Structure formats: structure tokens, C-alpha cells
């Protein structure tokens, strides 16, 4: 067994999640996790190593002083571990047409990732800041990247096509899909839990503040709700999901012509927050008795169930649904409402198992199996990094 340590960096638009893995002979073993929320002031690093939990105030910010944040994170978290830092593995949201699997990070790969910033302007720069910070602080440490879009590269060209001129499609304006690391993990776990279901037609529902669905056959992505950007698909906490392009043209003509203002509006003012006027957090909305909160939840569940139906058309049927991520794992009320809207598919939920957050939550009479499977993106990032190192 090696004492070497692998860190995973999962950089979101306003958070940094860290996974700590020891490189054991049987594979990476998770021994800790950490998180920094850049919307908080002062910045706090909250992390655990084994059973012990810590909170540390750190200096720096989400911009020019990002390297200070990474430096302090390394100092605090690695102080509890005996081994040397062997590698850092990053989640990168967009791989474009270039990256269809995990890759080691050399100068050429980093430059190619930088060219993809226009495809994910809020998320891609965050990953690049973490990569560049590690490069400056520990140039001796190996770095790898795992891409959220890579899992969906198996989709047919027809599925990925937008109804726009062919030259634009060929230049990369197409449906990519996201949350691929989560779906890859769900596919691997379902193979362990129910191999027969895993070989069939499955719709996985990654329901968190960002949310999407993915249709899989034998664990391979065939279609997904998110498209060219992470704004597409079902409504999310503060993102609208599907939106008529004519609505954007209207906004541009009536007081919102600046692209930056439209971008901020679409990413931060819409979705469940926009509909309710209260919050984008489904926990808050479920506890709120106002009609606006109820409407936001109803719209969320309606769009999820409708997308399940669309995805069934792509894969030609349905054998199982998997709920995952923060909402999918922890809010049985949402799972119930989605299942109720899908009764026409022969879906029946076991309310007792559902309220207990069991893994299998379908009734025995259900024609479609229902599962709740916690996701672990950091595990996928670590496994892909170890495969590259080996």
C-alpha cells in the first residue's frame, strides 16, 4: 500500500469541492472531503479527514488571489496525512469536441481547455484557475482532467444536432450534455445493484441546484436534457431550462441588450427562484405554504416527468429510473410527485421505501424499477486519474 495522496478539485461557479484519496493497492481510497463557498465572507475551508472535522478561515478570493486559496487548502488538508501529494485531478465542465475521455494535463492540453472557455464561461475559468494555481505551487505534481461532457460523446450525431445550418454544427454548436461524471458513477453503481436493470433502458435524474436527465442503454449515454449549455433542459434552482429563443429576442429589444446582463439573468434570476420569487432551494419551497412556492415545485416535477417521456422516445422504452444528487437523494416528496405524473408508464412507487430513502423504491407491481442512488463525482475523477497514472 502506498501512502501517496491524490486530491480531486471540483470547481463550480461559486464553490470548490475537494476530495482526498490515499492511493492504496486496491485503488484510490477516499479519506476526506472539503468545500469552500466563495459567496461567504470571510472564506471558510470546511473539511473532514477520517472522522475528524475542521473549519479554517483562509485568505484569498475567487479571482486574482485564487492561488492563495489553493495554497492554504493544501497546507491545511495535507497536514493531517502522512504521504506525499502525488497527483491532483480536476473536474473540467467542457471538453468540447476535443476531449472525449480523461487526459493528463500538459501545456498543450491546458491551452486546448482554455480555447473552450466561450462554451462554458462561468465554469471553465474556475477549473483553469485551480489548474494554473497548482502548476505554480507544485510543478512537480501530476495533474489530470476529467470532463463532464465526455460521457455523452457516445450519443448519435442526430441526437446532438440543433436545427441550425450545418456549418455551425460542424464548428461545434451542438448539444453536448453535462453531469457526465455523475452519470458515469450511477451507471457503474447500478451494475452492482441490479445488473439486469443496468443492461436495459434507464433514465437517470441528476436533481440538484443544477439539474438534468440522461437516457442510457447498457450504461451508455444516448440522450440528455442539457444541450449546448448548462442552461438547457428542465428548470433548475436559478436557471430556466428550456426557453423560447423569441423570449430572449424580446428581452434584448425591451431593456436587456447587454450579453453580460442576459447571462447573469439566465444563470441567477430564473428557475425556481424566478417562478416562486422566494428561493431556488426546493427544501425552502416545500416548507413554504404560498401558492407561488407550490407552483415552482409543480413546474419542476412537470418538466422532469415530461423529459422522461421525451427520453423514452430516444431509447425506445424504459426499464428503470434512478434519482440522484442533492434533491434526488434527499427529497422523497419530489420523487413521489415525479412518479405520480409517470403512472401512465406503469410506474408505482413504494412510499414506505421512498420515505426511508431506500435504494430500491418501486412497488412490487411497478412495470418500471425505481432507484435512489447517491452520486460521487469525486470517485469518478479519482478513478480516471489513477487509470491515467497507471
Automatic annotation (TrEMBL):
<comment type="subunit">
    <text>Homodimer.</text>
</comment>
<keyword id="KW-0460">Magnesium</keyword>
<keyword id="KW-0418">Kinase</keyword>
<keyword id="KW-0479">Metal-binding</keyword>
<dbReference type="GO" id="GO:0006085">
    <property type="term" value="P:acetyl-CoA biosynthetic process"/>
</dbReference>
<dbReference type="InterPro" id="IPR000890">
    <property type="entry name" value="Aliphatic_acid_kin_short-chain"/>
</dbReference>
<dbReference type="GO" id="GO:0006083">
    <property type="term" value="P:acetate metabolic process"/>
</dbReference>
<feature type="binding site">
    <location>
        <begin position="206"/>
        <end position="210"/>
    </location>
    <ligand>
        <name>ATP</name>
    </ligand>
</feature>
<feature type="site" description="Transition state stabilizer">
    <location>
        <position position="239"/>
    </location>
</feature>
<keyword id="KW-0067">ATP-binding</keyword>
<feature type="binding site">
    <location>
        <position position="17"/>
    </location>
    <ligand>
        <name>ATP</name>
    </ligand>
</feature>
<keyword id="KW-0808">Transferase</keyword>
<keyword id="KW-0963">Cytoplasm</keyword>
<dbReference type="Pfam" id="PF00871">
    <property type="entry name" value="Acetate_kinase"/>
</dbReference>
<dbReference type="GO" id="GO:0005829">
    <property type="term" value="C:cytosol"/>
</dbReference>
<feature type="binding site">
    <location>
        <begin position="326"/>
        <end position="330"/>
    </location>
    <ligand>
        <name>ATP</name>
    </ligand>
</feature>
<dbReference type="InterPro" id="IPR043129">
    <property type="entry name" value="ATPase_NBD"/>
</dbReference>
<feature type="binding site">
    <location>
        <position position="10"/>
    </location>
    <ligand>
        <name>Mg(2+)</name>
    </ligand>
</feature>
<dbReference type="InterPro" id="IPR023865">
    <property type="entry name" value="Aliphatic_acid_kinase_CS"/>
</dbReference>
<dbReference type="InterPro" id="IPR004372">
    <property type="entry name" value="Ac/propionate_kinase"/>
</dbReference>
<feature type="site" description="Transition state stabilizer">
    <location>
        <position position="179"/>
    </location>
</feature>
<feature type="binding site">
    <location>
        <begin position="281"/>
        <end position="283"/>
    </location>
    <ligand>
        <name>ATP</name>
    </ligand>
</feature>
<comment type="similarity">
    <text>Belongs to the acetokinase family.</text>
</comment>
<comment type="pathway">
    <text>Metabolic intermediate biosynthesis; acetyl-CoA biosynthesis; acetyl-CoA from acetate: step 1/2.</text>
</comment>
<feature type="active site" description="Proton donor/acceptor">
    <location>
        <position position="148"/>
    </location>
</feature>
<comment type="function">
    <text>Catalyzes the formation of acetyl phosphate from acetate and ATP. Can also catalyze the reverse reaction.</text>
</comment>
<dbReference type="GO" id="GO:0000287">
    <property type="term" value="F:magnesium ion binding"/>
</dbReference>
<dbReference type="GO" id="GO:0005524">
    <property type="term" value="F:ATP binding"/>
</dbReference>
<keyword id="KW-0547">Nucleotide-binding</keyword>
<feature type="binding site">
    <location>
        <position position="377"/>
    </location>
    <ligand>
        <name>Mg(2+)</name>
    </ligand>
</feature>
<feature type="binding site">
    <location>
        <position position="91"/>
    </location>
    <ligand>
        <name>substrate</name>
    </ligand>
</feature>
<dbReference type="GO" id="GO:0008776">
    <property type="term" value="F:acetate kinase activity"/>
</dbReference>
<protein>
    <recommendedName>
        <fullName>Acetate kinase</fullName>
        <ecNumber>2.7.2.1</ecNumber>
    </recommendedName>
</protein>
